[in-house]
Amino acid sequence: MSIFEQPIEWDEQLIQRYDLAGPRYTSYPTAPQFQESFSQSSLFRAIVRSNLAHRPLSLYFHIPFCESLCYYCGCNKIVTNNKSRSLPYIQRMIQELSLYADMFDPGKEVQQLHWGGGTPTFISNEEMSLLMNASRRLFTFADDKSGEFAIEIHPGRVSVNTMAHLRQLGFNRVSMGVQDFDERVQKAVNRFNTYEQVAGLTRGLREQRYQSVSMDLIYGLPLQSKQSLQETLQKVIDLEPDRLSLFNYAHMPHLFKSQKLIRDEDLPGPSEKLAMLHFAIETLQNAGYVYIGMDHFAKPDDDLVIAQREGKLQRNFQGYSTHGNCDLLAVGVSSISMIDNVYVQNARDLNSYQQKMDMGLLPIAKGFTLNQEDLLRRFVINRLICYCELSFHEIARAFDINPQQHFRDELQQLHPMITEGLIVIDNSGIKVLNKGRLLIRRVCMVFDEYLQKATNNVMPIRYSKII
Ligand SMILES: C[S@@+](CC[C@H](N)C(=O)[O-])C[C@H]1O[C@@H](n2cnc3c(N)ncnc32)[C@H](O)[C@@H]1O
Ligand code: SF4
């Protein structure tokens, strides 16, 4: 039985000892390393290399608008009831996309599409058609069978009719934020979606032949208890989503002002949070879900589990994803592209984004070009985070190095984790053991050159706790 199918081994003391703040490695290097001095010519060269390699594309659109403010939210969003704000924004996203379409090989296939937010269904059905038709005009899309075309939805804010419209436009996957069904918790975070709404919508999505339904839950929210989480989990399991994300509530009011509206005394304490996580993982595994890693669960026959088994999984800004062979082109405010050896991030605020577009410029604010050492470390972190193991032979072949020599200091640093039973290291490589799975970030952090170099090794306050 692979480590992913085994029930998680819970060692509370070990978890408490290793539970420091740390990055989630949705990219390496992580976004704080991106530089304003980044030269766009590096991006253009990366696109040329992407074309020469005939790598397919993954497209991401960031639609930041939301009709109401969920107090816990750490996403890049704009809360407004003014529906007229979306059209000018969509027009600029189309303009941005067309600038890129001129640079990419027209034969390049879009194998993945993701509309994220904010709340992408804030925009009208006509605006959805406008954006999707423009995307199809500018790029070549894979067919419904092989392509993954996903949208994030807020189940309290979307109708079955709109979902039917989106299905017609080609969407075949849905990710919905459920967070918690408990009314008291919902009130404390100003986020409302009833079980009936979620159940009705899920039924509708199945009838409309969406291929996959994923649900987001958060643990550690105000007024949440093990008991309330148990009830939410049971309801969610009854609805049989194909995938589940269980996020640790990242409470960082110094970064996200709306979190100040959450009363400290309502937040569950660290030991209560740990009990919730332990219980949730056990419950989901008992219900037949595979724990992919880092907050993500999926049914055993889901593409994500298959990709993990077949070595085709990748870590990206959505968490885990199949289609690891794609370059990612992301448009819209704050979005991050990953093309060949380059990351670029767009302006984070709407005004700067729109101004740049109006000047006919790419709205890039920051970027990063990975050197050979970064590429090697990205590979190592990806392998560990996706498969819980690293083969020295594989890295030696791919990067023409002697990994045991190259990572001598890192392997030394990992020694206490061997003693604690989190990992094993032998001549063939590193294996993360069952007990170490929840602490995988700690293993990855050892290979993060930028973190290691950070002054005094003090973790910047932008990172939340690991668990
Ligand atoms: C962009 S939102 C999802 C789409 C949609 N706006 C919604 O709320 O349903 C992505 C997910 O991030 C998670 N999230 C947002 N803020 C968070 C925080 N502070 N800590 C942990 N998870 C958070 C939520 O589970 C949310 O569903
Ligand atoms: S959780 Fe979703 S709906 Fe709520 S504010 Fe954040 S992005 Fe908007």
Structural features, described:
With 467 residues, the protein is an alpha/beta fold. It folds into two domains: 1-29 and 372-467, Arc Repressor Mutant, subunit A (Orthogonal Bundle), CATH 1.10.10.920; 31-331, tm_1862 like domain (pyruvate-formate lyase- activating enzyme, Alpha-Beta Horseshoe). Helices cover 38% and strands 20% of the residues. The chain is built from 18 helices and 20 strands. The protein has helices at 12-18, 40-52, 86-101, 125-138, 160-169, 183-189, 195-207, 226-238, 270-286, 303-310, 350-358, 372-387, 392-399, 403-406, 408-413, 415-419, 440-446, 449-453; strands at 57-63, 65-66, 78-79, 109-117, 140-141, 148-153, 173-179, 212-219, 243-248, 290-293, 296-298, 314-316, 319-321, 327-331, 336-339, 342-346, 364-369, 389-391, 423-426, 429-432. Strands 1, 4, 5, 6, 7, 8, 9, 10, 11 and 14 form a ten-stranded mixed sheet that branches. Helix 3 (86-101) runs parallel beside helix 4 (125-138). The chain is globular and about 60 Å long. The two termini are 26 Å apart.
